[in-house]
Write a structure and sequence with these properties.
- With about 550 residues, the protein is an alpha/beta fold.
- It contains 16 helices and 13 strands.
- The protein has three domains: about 100 residues, no CATH class; about 260 residues, 3-Layer(aba) Sandwich (Aspartate Aminotransferase, domain 2); about 130 residues, Aspartate Aminotransferase, domain 1.
- A seven-stranded mixed β-sheet has the order 3-9-8-7-6-4-5, sandwiched between helices. It has a four-stranded antiparallel β-sheet with strand order 10-11-13-12, with helices on one face.
- Helix 6 packs parallel to helix 13.
- The site of pyridoxal-5'-phosphate has 15 residues, from helix 8.
Length: about 550
């Protein structure tokens, strides 16, 4: 057999060891070891919290890669479970990234409440498959309930609506997905299918395909409009749905750094003048990945209503802000969306990976119904009838439990901490003469860059061309700041490219921070800026 190592080993794979794997640990000592490690997994990994961010062990990626080049599978067992777990704790964990550190403020992945690990373990232990009732029973029912709760958080229909739909086998308020990417894909899938009603011999696009749909409707092209801050998952959806990702059209942003409504309206007019092109959806972003900025949702809803266009809100990041009585108003207009994406593994603080998509119309998902005789029967609660994914874990159990443990107020506290800490952080950046705040935080994300005082004055008086030259030098320094800080392993911020000045034609390198860990405080943020300043001045002086 190729790729399989044959070797005489102390450990063997035979029927009796196989049985043990399915029953329980081999003996009392083994059981105790497993319990000990379980304790370490569940609580001990949190020891990381007080350590620093990076690879605790200084090792280059090249070196690391050299250690992982074995491409064969062992025939006999190499290790006992307890030893494997020990290895993971001793060797893998220290070389992974400590996303739980309060100094890790670069990405949308962060610390999670410790009980999430328990809930994840329970989900794995139960191993329910919510694709169908026969492998999940109450978990399919529970999923429908939590979907109704979050639907209510977003759309807030009356009691009667939820009484009608919460356990209705004929309707679906939303679905769980693997994340925001598949949630956005599902939303646009529905929007696409909705765009092509039956006509003549054409029944529907799901059955007859895109070519037949375009032909029947006398069209040549279908487009989606979203601000240039749109997440790249939308482009993937454009590719998969066959409309082409070049037809996910970026609309420029205005001085608020959200979608420019004048330019959007012009674009709509321009597209509608071409009778061969149709707009499939307009997307509002509720918390842009790079800047956290929220599009003017009420205005977008109005435009979509006037033109009869599907209105999708990508609230993968911002959705849970609705739980905060203090800040839910920022998402006003979301209730007018036709579909809404919300990630669980972002601001619901759930472990990887889980997302959701909701539809205002409880019948919207009928456009993608699929049955299989052996599994999903029509009219059942089989959740797999209307999902992109097939087999799927019961993530709803984690969300439902987390909401019980935290309460909406508990979530609100985390959200409010993020927003308010980001506001203070913005002030700190402004107070330091060597930094320039590039995007101020509407939610808990902001961007800034290093610009020495002298250069700031020069930039103020420079023309476009001169600014471009100066920015090229600054880009280089800001890239180095980000890299050197990351490599030092104490703190982590990320970087991206945005326009520093909206009149410019060019983007500049900016440092990006996402504040979602409740343990990240102002003292830590001062330390992070101090470190960046020291790195920057070191480069600048040399
Ligand atoms: C994160 C994000 C996505 C993609 O979600 P994944 O869970 O990474 O697939 C989509 N849209 C926005 C606005 C996001 O922030």
């Amino acid at each position: 057999m190729t790729g399989i190592k044959k070797e005489p080993d102390a450990l063997v794979a035979d029927r009796s060891t196989l049985h043990r794997v399915f029953l329980r640990p081999e003996d009392e000592t083994c059981r105790q070891t497993l319990v000990k490690y379980m304790e370490q997994i569940l609580f001990g990994l949190h020891d990381f919290l007080n350590k620093h961010v990076g690879v605790t062990e200084e090792i280059s990626l090249i070196k690391l890669a050299e250690e992982y080049t074995d491409t064969t599978i062992n025939q006999n067992p190499q290790k006992k479970l307890a030893d494997v777990i020990k290895d993971i704790i001793d060797e893998i964990a220290p070389r992974a990234v400590n996303v739980a550190s309060p100094y890790f403020i670069g990405h949308m992945t962060s610390a999670i409440p410790f009980f999430m690990v328990h809930l994840k373990a329970i989900t794995a232990a139960l191993n329910q498959n919510v694709i169908k009732l026969e492998t999940s029973k109450v978990l399919s029912i529970l999923e429908k309930q939590i979907l109704a709760k979050i639907h209510r958080m977003v759309f807030n229909f009356d009691d009667n609506f939820y009484r009608t739909h919460v356990q209705n086998t004929q309707t679906t308020l939303g679905v769980f997905t693997t994340g925001g990417t598949t949630a956005n894909l599902t939303a646009l899938w529905i929007a696409r299918n909705k765009l092509f009603p039956a006509k003549g011999t054409f029944e529907n696009i799901e059955k007859n395909g895109l070519f037949a749909a375009l032909k029947a409707h006398g069209l040549e092209r279908v487009v989606v409009l979203v601000s240039k801050r749109g997440h790249y998952s939308l482009k993937k959806a454009g590719g998969i749905l066959g409309i082409g990702h070049e037809n996910i059209i970026p609309v420029d942003i205005d001085s608020n750094r959200s979608i420019d409504l004048v330019k959007l309206k012009n674009k709509i007019r321009e597209i509608q003048a071409d009778k061969k092109t149709k707009i499939m959806a307009i997307i509002g972003i509720a918390g842009a990945t790079e800047t956290g900025i929220i599009d003017p949702l009420p205005e977008l809803a109005k435009i979509c209503k006037i033109h009869g266009i599907h209105f999708h809100v990508d609230a993968a990041w911002g959705g849970p802000v609705l739980l905060s009585e203090k800040y839910y108003h920022l998402l006003k207009g979301i209730e007018q969306a036709d579909s809404v994406t919300i990630d669980c593994h972002k601001q619901f603080y759930m472990p990887m990976s889980s997302g959701m998509v909701y539809f205002k119309d409880p019948k919207a998902l009928d456009r993608i119904v699929y049955h299989a005789k052996y599994v999903n029967r029509p009219g059942s609660v089989d959740l797999g009838i209307k999902t992109l994914e097939g087999s799927r874990e019961a993530n709803s159990l984690i969300l439902d439990s987390a909401l019980k443990i935290m309460g909406s107020r508990g979530y609100a506290l985390m959200i409010e901490h993020g927003i308010e800490t980001a506001q203070h952080f913005a002030k700190m950046i402004k107070q330091r003469p060597v930094f320039q705040l590039v995007t101020k935080p509407q939610l808990n994300i902001l961007t800034y860059r290093f610009v020495p005082e002298k250069i700031q004055k020069k930039l103020d008086y420079a023309d476009k061309k001169q600014r471009q030259d100066i920015d090229a030098i600054l880009d280089n320094i800001n890239k180095q700041i980000q890299r050197i800080q990351r490599e030092a392993g104490k703190s982590f911020v990320s970087r991206t490219r945005l326009k520093a000045c909206l009149d410019d034609d060019h983007d500049v390198v900016v440092l990006r921070t996402v504040i979602m860990n409740p343990m990240t405080d102002l003292k830590i943020l001062e330390e992070i800026l101090d470190e960046q300043e020291a790195i920057a001045l070191n480069i600048w002086d040399s």
